[in-house]
Amino acid sequence: MGRYVARRFVSMIITLWFVITITFFLMHSIPGGPFSREKALPEKVLEALNEKYHLNDPLWKQYTDYLQGVVVLDFGPSFSRPGIFVWDKIQEGFPISAKVGGIASLFVIIAGIPAGVISALYQNKLPDYIVTVIATVGVAVPSFVVATLFIYVFSEKLMLVPAYGLEEIKSYIGPTIALAGFSLSFVARLSRSSLLEVMQQDYIRTARAKGLSELSVIFKHAIKNSLIPVITYMGPTIASILTGSFVVERIFAIPGMGKLFVESVGNRDYTMIMGTTIFYAAFAIIMIFLVDIAYGIIDPRIKLGD
Amino acid sequence: MFKRSLALLLVVMMVAGLFIGCGGNTEEPAAPADNTPAETTEPAAETPEPTEAPAEQVLYWNIGAEPKTIDPGLNAAVDGGHVINNMFEGLMRELNGTLEPAMAESYTVSDDGMVYTFTLRDAKWSDGKTVTAQDFEWAWNRVLAPETASEYSWIFDAANVDTFQALDDKTFEVTLKAPTPYFLGLTAFYTFFPVRQESVEAGADGAWAIDPAKSIVNGPFMLDSYVGGDRLELVPNPEYWQADKVKLERIVGVMIVEASTALTAYEGGTLDVLATVPTEEISRLIAEDPTFYILPMDGTYYYAFNVEAAPLDDVNVRKALSLAIDRQAICDTVTKAGQIPALNIVAPTSYDADGNLFSDQLGSVGLQATAAVEDAQQALADAGYPNGEGFPTLELMYNTSEGHKVIAEAIQEMWKKNLNIDVALTNQEWAVFQDTRKQGSFQVARAGWIGDYSDPMTYLDMFTSTNIGATNYSRWVNEDYDKLLEDAKTAPGQERFNMLYDAGKLVEEAYINLPIYYYTNTIMVADKVHDWEMNTRSTWWFGFAYIE
């Protein structure tokens, strides 16, 4: 186990290094430069800006400086917002996204898996149909439609929840639904089909044959094994939900990571784009790692370290 | 078995708990819920005023995207300007369309119009120190220092500022290179606002301006809190020289980017002021909502013809293209936000020395709001392409955006219908497009210009031969034009404007631009908000606003 973790750690670092390198050189090959403006900046000002942000240094030096910075979590200053540092903005934005996303992720797990299980246990009966229909709608309708519809109905027409921000507890309802909708539906469908498949397995028949109650067959043997694909899916999903959806955050005016990322793209804030991309990549890599660990716990046949 | 499921549960809990835990740490700065009165009663407890009307003096205003900076010397954008205009004050201030002395109590102008001497009033900064002429001197020098890298420092050149100095604490003298009628107006513009040295030096690169502990201001409101990407809150500055006229007790400036969300919040009553309205809602709002306003804006949307690229090197071709489009139809059916058809490049927001609206007086050379089809066809025939025969396919380029695309498509169709010529549309990403345009590697390119100061010079100056490679996208060279503009920089009064009229005629007769429409501001202000103002620079002013 220890050796496995160490090996995975090294490969994580290498993956991350690839991400940093690719992002860095992509950002530096974009035409126009970070300071191109409708009204061209005076030469002196442009020179001062380039000097300030070390854009006059040779590219390899900028690259090594940047790598050194990343190691100590210094992603440099924002190119488009003077006086603001990328890491500060990430630290501000991520907890907000993670809070909304955490609620949404819990919602996905708590509601999605049971819905799938119920649906599978009542295959081709009413509960199954209800879950399947809702899940199909949930997968098919994009989050921005859910978000806009939610605001339209509950904020504008019924005036039950605020249209924007996270001021009140009930402000979280809309973003949670919009953020969780797709994954929840997907998890429900996934756990349904997975459980149905597991129920056909020989060992389930064996369990039944040795006289176990149906309840204990399902809960002790079937569900746990059916969760493997769900967990595979949940790792990257949680990573993406926690780091914020730019669509949902934009519509509900939540100052999280997603909004930060999109605005930095709009502002051509290169350092901010690099910082948020690398942060997201690191986070996704860690989540995938956790999923791999979780496999080992759920299914003893998967041996880590092989 | 059970142990394993427990372990699974633990992993899930750990992962979830990790982030919920993270959220908890920064909860306080992220949500200053305690001092933001959500709906009704709370603030009354904070400020008990038994004799006043019960209306809560809190203004909820959507700033839109987070301003890049609210440091007056560094700001170069409209959204930052809104906030700065309510926190700082220059020598003059524009109120109800006229310039009023602000930090200056009075000023004198030398007979040649070159030396302005401002006498400052007894005004104080928010920390109680007096606003001095030295503050202005320091602030202006800071903007001009290259290491400040102020994007708007060039405006000192545009204003012909030569030297400036504090003669004593209360006297500030500015010497211009030439008499400049719009200089005084510019002293009400943020780049010319004073800032406090101690404050600025406390937080590099404008970081001081968003830190309530470091920000020192001299305007009606001061910073109470700032949460990036979310909101900023302003409270009255008790040291403001007209503090008795400031009635709002708090301004909550939220940063909602999504226009439809902002509109929903406005219609639900949780926002009082907004300036970003979804285009598709505008026709409904014009018809139904009396709190929807369309205000003129100092800006022109136009296309530039590259005079070096055949067949556009022929003035008759340019004339034909310009005459053949129906500007009214574009405003009414495409842009639909109350835009005004543009018949020349200068937006109708500045006046000459005799008090005439410059744009109207300049007039147009044959352009009409609707298409002048016969004249256009005649011009095309004069150029040797009767009924469009033999005319090569023209390339019209715009920067990638749905809004620009629909306009380009409308014009493409008009040219096809009225002139029988084919146009290919291409688009480029903004940064690439800007380079393309400056290098002149295009035939027809979209452009837009927002006036920097209230004077036709801000438009006409774009087309001098020295600005080729910068704002003269057409690469048009006319020595008479260059000379007229150069002379106008030193000419006095109406004589100067006559030169600008002559210059304006030259640029029109050359048909190097195809003016399309003048921009407008589409804004919404709730009924209960009174005495708000949006000045001719399209900047909000809530200094004397109140809620009733």
Automatic annotation (TrEMBL), chain A:
Gene3D superfamilies: MetI-like. Residues 94-291 form the ABC transmembrane type-1 domain. Keywords: Cell membrane, Membrane, Transmembrane, Transmembrane helix, Transport. The keyword NADP does not apply. It is found in: Cell membrane. Pfam families: BPD_transp_1, BPD_transp_1_N. It is a multi-pass membrane protein. PROSITE patterns: ABC_TM1. The chain crosses the membrane at residues 9-30, 103-122, 129-152, 172-190, 230-252, 272-298. InterPro entries: BPD_transp_1_N, MetI-like, MetI-like_sf. Coiled coil: none annotated. Belongs to the binding-protein-dependent transport system permease family. This is ABC transporter permease. It comes from Fusibacter paucivorans.
